[in-house]
Structures are given as C-alpha cells and as structure tokens.
Amino acid sequence: MAKRKQSEYKCPLEVTMEIIGGKYKGVIIGHLINKTLRYNELQKLISHATPKMLIQQLKELEADGIIKRKLYPVVPPKTEYSLTKRGESLLPAIIELNKWGLNYLREENIPCAFNSYID
Length: 119
Description:
Elements: H1 12-20, H2 25-31, E1 37-38, H3 39-45, H4 51-63, E2 67-72, E3 78-83, H5 85-88, H6 91-107
Antiparallel strand pairs: 1-3, 2-3
C-alpha cells in the first residue's frame, strides 16, 4: 500500500520524489510509455526486481493514480497495467531523467543494456 501522504510539504519536489522515488517506479513508468503490459511482461523487463517488490511498487503507483490496473476474470487471471492521465503527465520528467542517466553512463563509460533515449 502507498505511504500515507503528509498533510504538508516543504517543497513540491518532496512529494514528486515520494511518488516516483521507489527503486523501480521510474523504470515501470518508462516501460509503460505508450503501452499496456501484463504483469508477467513487466516482470521479465524488470527481472532483477523480486516479485514482492514489483507488486509493492505497482500497488503504490496505482494508489497514487499514476498507473491503472485492469484485472480480467479468466483462469488464470490476467492483469494489465497502463499509465493514467496523471501518469502520462510525468512523461516529460521521466524522459529527461532517462536522458540524464544515459549521458552519465556514457561519461563514466559504464555499459548499459538499454542505450538510447526513451521517446
């Protein structure tokens, strides 16, 4: 479950980082740009996340209105995730953070499996 929101913040960046600052939240948002993905697809894309951690991050993003979860009543259950309008409004910031990270990796000569900008 998402953390309880404070009743007051000292800085807007504080609430932004509280919402997207989880270990995999930015990565999840990046993978959902212009896509709807099933849980298993996200799990494969973020294979270094434990199932427990991935589920927790997805629940927090859903509780904060960043992603929506659609559950299909089939056997086995099928769950899909996509960005909400609020989540889509984060895309310019996520794209810029991705660019910054890519430039940092290049400057430090650190390899990365994903080596292009998110668009």
